[in-house]
Amino acid sequence: MSKNSPSFLKNLIFAVVVLGAVFFYFRRSGKEIPLIDKPIFGQTDEPDEAVDAEPGTEVYEPEESPEQLAFKLNPYTEAVNYLSGRAFDSYNRYASWVKQMQRGPTGQESTVYGLYTLYDPKTYFEKLDGAQLLDPELPLIQAAADSFRQSYLQLYRLVEDVYRYYDHEDYKDDQWKKGKAVHPELVQAFRNFFRAERALREALRARQAGLLALYQSEALDSVEHPIQYQMYTAQRLANGIMDLALIKDLKELSLQPFSEKLDSLEALVSQIREASEGSEDSYLQSYGKSFADSYDGFLKSAKVMRRRVRDRAPLESHERWMLEYMDESSVEGMPGHLMNAYNQTVGAFNRLDFEGLPEMPELIEQTMFHVHYR
After folding, report:
1. Helix (H), strand (E) at residue 90
2. Is this model's pTM higher than 0.85 or not?
3. Whole-angstrom Cα distance, residue 80 to residue 200?
4. Mean pLDDT, 10 residues at a time, over the chain (374 residues)?
5. How far is residue 237's CA from residue 35's CA, in Å, rounded to a whole number?
6. CA distances (Å), 359 to each of 174, 213, 219, 220, 345, in order?
7. C-alpha pair distances (Å), 64 with each of 59, 67, 132
């Protein structure tokens, strides 16, 4: 199959863009698996000595078939993207009402939400079985995938049981006996899965480095498809901004590169809007403007973040209240808020479907540990 075939490009784009977009919520300063009390972007109350070093030593080799590698990676990226988000949501749901995650429920909670069930992994694990048989062999990725699979299955079964306990309100009958007893096991199961998930994600990231440049050179021509090329460049700039913005303390923001990327993105979005309005293609006119408009919230939130750091602006009283009783995503200019705005750009990107070009892959909307300042 030709490198220029739609099938090749479709699979290549999937492996590259999805992987490039989904790793940002793990780029934290310091420790990266916050599971104790209300987590604040990678900050924990205890050291996590069991976290392994980065496994990402398998890199793209030019002599490898990009098409074959794309087919190999797709099932791994699908499993990470689809199964991980629900696990984060489930943990966040549980942590939203358990006041002290280190101690567990006390039985005195005024509100009990329980937690969410996880997605059935059968279909995705069957795809992993098939991918394991494909060339090239990727021993580090496969080892990480095995740990991912095992830890997810253990978490899946435990969450199913704990979910029923809270959904049936059995804690009202046993005076919280099971809820208190199962808490340490549940937290450890989440910890094991997030550790394995991170290892697989980082191994996949290392493998996609060479594919990224190949996608830009093969899939979109800046002369023949200038607006589409600019849209993809804008999304990559947004990705780079998120890479810098996911920090546990705004004081740690690298202001100069953040500001440079932000200014470049704003200029590029303006170019996309102007070019789309002047295009003779009605599709580009409509979707180009919609795509550019989707960046308004992201650009605004990023500018507020920049001002907070540059001017050392203190939080307003209502913002402090929202941080205490809600979470970071409710306060403009905070990393959690910027993440939500970023997801709006992802949604606009996912809706793009240009005639004559390979089908564009869907990026994954980012997930994170909710942040409460209590």
Report:
1. helix 66-95
2. no
3. 8
4. 51 49 40 36 32 48 63 82 85 88 92 95 95 90 96 98 98 97 96 92 72 56 69 82 82 92 95 84 78 92 93 84 71 84 77 57 49 40
5. 30
6. 54, 18, 10, 12, 18
7. 11, 9, 17
